[in-house]
Amino acid sequence: MRSDGLSTRALLRMVGVLFAVLAGLYLLWLSRGVITWVVIGGFLAVAMNPLVSLLQVRLRMRRAAAIFIVYLAVAGVIAGAALLFVPPLIDAGQQLTEEVPTYVEQLSESELVQQLDEEYDVLDRIEEEATSALGGVAGPDTAVELATRVINGLVALISIAVIAFLLSLYGPRAHDWVLAQQHGEKRVRLQRVSERVYRVISGYVVGVFLVAMTGGVAVWIFLTIIDVPFALLLAFWAGFASLVPLVGATIGGIPYIAVAFFQGWPIGVAAIVFLIVYQQIENNLFQPMIHRFTVQLNPLWIILAVLVGATLIGVVGALMAIPAAGIAQVLIQEWWAARQGGVPPALAPQEPSPEP
């Protein structure tokens, strides 16, 4: 039976589709942890692909063997860094935790801080927050909490490593198979999109880690020269914070500037000057080098992407937000170019990937 409005069958179909979409979104939300692992594994697979391809070409190795060698090299570097840096970081964290009351006592001598403390109880809050934050690094967790964190971290690390290995091994084959199903202009456009996305991810991941390492080492050298305590711990935090674009250097600089001021105002001013100078070097030298191999993103677009990513899945979301925004920009450019009957700016020629 038909009518001028929606038929019963069409209405039921719409309700069914809506229910299926909502159920799918709910399932994705429940699986967000696993999806995050898959995305991280994909980024890592793309980032290490140039080294894997180099081993394939230079040493004429099978792809699985090349990936295994890269894994061994990365695992060796991580293990060596952990043995070298983790014990000093833990010791420095414990010492800094013990020094927090002393720093709070020094702050209490300031008239401005005394006035704020009378009205808002600032000193107790500062001591509580600082001790709590440092306790995450060196605080006395219970055995159950510590064991749970270690096990969860190992499960996530192993899962991501396996996912990255499989994506790196079978990704090129899947890419070639998808391309083989397309013909003509559609195949050309898909090939161009995949190359641009590859450049966005690999260039960003490699570049941002190089920036973070450079920032951490630079801060450590500077703090060591001016004899600021806890230089290694503060430099580690500065390098980690530098992973977040635009605002990372500032976030990472606040702790070592604060500690520097406790050593005397000239040292504190020197730390501020160092932060300003390093930010200029990073923004005008390092970031353009990263964008040269990825895409140029508007700073507003970057900030919005980082905020959305951090709100959804925390620090990991903030780190993945920029390549995700770059991929979105590539897709939008390709869609717009297709509508206008043209093509986006051409990419630099790339060497063909070796067969797996």
* Radius of gyration, in angstroms, nearest whole number: 25 Å
Alpha-beta classification: mainly alpha
Q: Can you tell me the overall shape? A: globular
Largest β-sheet summary: none
Please work out how many helical segments DSSP would assign: 11
Which regions are unreliable across 5 or more consecutive residues at pLDDT < 50? 346-356
Proportion of β residues? under 5%
Q: Please state the average pLDDT score.
A: 77
CA(first)-CA(last) distance: 58 Å
The run of helices and strands is HHHHHHHHHHH
- Residue share in helix: over 70%
Would you write up a description of this structure?
By secondary structure, the chain is an all-alpha fold. The chain contains 11 helices and no strands. The radius of gyration is 25 Å and the shape is globular.
In short:
The chain is mainly α. The chain has helices at 8-30, 32-59, 63-107, 111-120, 122-138, 143-180, 184-225, 231-241, 248-262, 265-292, 299-340.
What is the element layout, followed by pairings?
Elements: H1 8-30, H2 32-59, H3 63-107, H4 111-120, H5 122-138, H6 143-180, H7 184-225, H8 231-241, H9 248-262, H10 265-292, H11 299-340
Helix pairs in contact: 2-3, 2-6, 2-7, 3-5, 7-8, 7-10, 7-11, 8-9, 9-10
What labels would you give this structure?
356 residues; mainly alpha; 11 helices; 84% helix; disordered C terminus
